[in-house]
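Late entry, written up from scratch paper. The run itself happened at the end of the previous shift, but nothing got recorded in the book at the time, so transcribing now.
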Amino acid sequence: MTNPSGTLANLPPEQRLSAARMKAYGYMPYFTMGIQSLIPHPAPGMGTLGVTQGNHLLVDYEALGAWTAAEAAGVVLHEWMHRFSKHAERFLKLIANGIAEPGDAEDWNAACDAEINCSLIEANIPLPGDLVTPASLNMPPHRLAE
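Output as recorded:
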């Protein structure tokens, strides 16, 4: 059965992440080992993917079904780039140095998303939905989250 929308919806949920990872390896092969190090954990209803400081990849398999393989690969790359860039550790350092407070976590995540999405967009990696970008935050491109 073909899928006219091109989404991963026709794949069984347990195969959607594998398809997204395979596509991500093709886009950025140098991140293959890092992406493989992410430990999937189901996160039904999350509406997206997320990553923890402990390399746990939070996966909403239904959300994966709504995206194309290319978009899902972009989201997997986005989450790996949070770990690669050590965003959680950098935020903790900002807190430790009195520059940020724990309540700034949402703003910090938006700044990190803009940092990552700027790079992925320039690399022509498809991403689903409304994106946080430097422009959406009224900031110039190519800056760090800080």
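The beta strands are 39-42, 49-51, 56-59.
(Scratch paper discarded after transcription.)
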